[in-house]
Design a protein that fits this description.
Layout (H helix, E strand, L loop, with lengths): L40 E7 L5 E8 L40 H15 L25 E3 L2 E3 L1 E3 L14 E4 L5 H17 L5 E4 L2 H8 L23 H7 L6 E6 L5 H14 L6 E9 L5 E4 L12 E8 L5 E2 L2 E3 L4 E3 L6 E5 L13 E3 L2 E3 L2 E9 L25 E4 L7 E4 L8 H10 L1
Parallel strand pairs: 7-19, 8-20
Antiparallel strand pairs: 1-2, 3-4, 5-6, 6-15, 8-9, 9-18, 10-16, 11-15, 11-18, 12-17, 13-14, 13-16, 19-20
């Protein structure tokens, strides 16, 4: 990924967390190089001696309550991504962390899953309707009296015969007012999370490679540099790494938290037939100068689970003076950021198989500030898709509202700041997820 210039400082050995252990899984990166951080559910199995498979529960990634303080005003289409003042979260733990963190998280999840039986009718799993989304069907639409035309993008390269990927573009898909409101909400929300982030890595190798050609290049890195049960370094080391890493910044909101979500869902469906029921959370991501995102696929190559990202829609919220293009290198397609412009593409073929020709990258911003709205749509939906999680994992120990940075596999990913904690940084969770692929 594009790095911010490294500052010349003393070679400081990081303070090792007192609760560190030798726990370390075989953290080989996914084939796609994409850290699938928004996988929102996974079945956890135990194989008994007889060979019987017993489902223990649904491992649900949960965070803050669904009644979030996210709203839209009629005047400026601005949404608020901030938590209510009474929504307090604490992730302080006793000095000695639970070594069986994965087990404790699973047990807690079992309790939550069983608790679904107590939920209201509209939230009950029995009301869930499974839907399949096989392909994009783009068309011209009218928005507030203006014609929004679709254009299929043809690359500079000859199209590979095996490629199933199609990329489409819509100008003025969002109005200036909508773009401005989304950007204001994003920047305001980021400012609230003012604590230095805790930094997590795809693997020890990814951390080592980030340290090359820096003041930390001679440092011996092992799994002990990760806090116990996680792939995150401690707060002290995270602060040191802040000077050598660059990252994009992402905030999230969910369906129903603002009137904008229903407006956007309806517009996307009319233009593409991407079903709202198959959509995940909405993400607003910003890139400052020098920051991009390396080549990656949104789906996972070789994944057998149909609950994967079939399609993507991306809207540029402002112009970028130089750089910041979205590029599909295998197709020879490059799209410049322009305010209100949307691009959409399929990541999988009609059978739900991840197509490697969907590989794409966000080129580093050279001059300006890039901000996008993005949503992924899944081939097969699942119950927790698009629902705001009700809690976050306890590990690592952190301050209230402290964000984290996730650095994906070095060659096919980059670092990104998040306002909400998932579970992919937990060692045992990663082991379970790997078994399910």
């Amino acid at each position: 990924m594009a790095k911010t210039p490294a500052k010349h400082r003393k070679n400081v050995k990081p303070k090792r967390n007192s609760s560190s252990s030798q726990q370390h899984s075989d953290e080989r990166p996914e084939v796609s190089g994409k850290n699938h951080s928004n996988y929102q559910c996974a079945l956890i199995f135990v194989i008994l001696a007889t060979g019987t498979v017993v489902t223990l529960g649904i491992a649900v990634i949960m965070r803050a309550g669904p009644d979030s303080n996210v709203h839209i005003t009629t005047d400026d289409a601005e949404i608020s991504l901030l938590k209510r003042p009474d929504q307090k979260e604490s992730h302080s733990l006793p000095e000695k962390a639970d070594k069986n963190v994965g087990t404790s998280e699973i047990k807690e999840t079992e309790h939550r899953t069983n608790g679904l039986k107590q939920s209201s009718a509209h939230n009950h799993p029995k009301e869930f309707q499974e839907t399949i989304l096989k392909q994009l069907k783009p068309r011209d639409i009218t928005v507030d009296g203006r014609l929004v035309k679709v254009q299929e993008l043809i690359g500079s390269k000859k199209r590979p015969e095996k490629a199933s990927i199609r990329v489409y573009q819509f100008e003025h898909f969002l109005s200036d007012q909508e773009c401005d409101g989304l950007m204001r909400a994003h920047l305001r929300h980021v400012s609230v999370h003012s604590e230095d982030p805790i930094i997590c890595f795809d693997s020890v190798d990814t951390l080592r490679r980030h340290l090359r050609n820096t003041q930390f290049k001679n440092m011996k890195i092992t799994s002990e540099d990760f806090t116990e049960g996680t792939t995150c370094v401690n707060a002290s080391f995270s602060k040191d790494l802040k000077s050598i890493l660059g990252w994009s910044t992402s905030t999230a909101f969910y369906p129903g938290e603002t009137k904008f979500t229903s407006i956007f869902d309806e517009r996307v469906y009319r233009a593409t037939e991407l079903k709202p029921s198959n959509g995940g959370k909405y993400q607003i991501t910003s890139y400052r100068n020098g920051i991009g995102y390396k080549t990656h696929t949104d789906c996972t190559i070789g994944n057998r689970d149909l609950r994967d990202r079939m399609g993507t829609i991306l809207v540029y919220l402002q112009d970028v003076e130089e750089g910041g293009q979205t590029e599909f290198p295998e197709l020879g397609i490059s799209v410049r950021p322009r305010k209100g412009r949307a691009i959409t593409w399929n990541n999988e073929d009609i059978d739900g198989t991840c197509d490697p020709y969907s590989i794409h990258a966000a080129k580093p911003v050279i001059k300006g500030h890039k901000i996008i709205l993005q949503r992924w749509y899944y081939y097969q939906n699942f119950y927790m898709l698009g629902k705001r999680p009700s809690s976050e994992p306890d590990l690592p120990v952190r301050q209230e509202l402290q964000p984290y940075v996730s650095c994906d596999e070095y060659d096919h990913g980059s670092c990104r700041w998040y306002d909400e904690w998932g579970y992919d940084h937990l060692v045992q969770y990663r082991q379970v997820k790997k078994q399910l692929h």
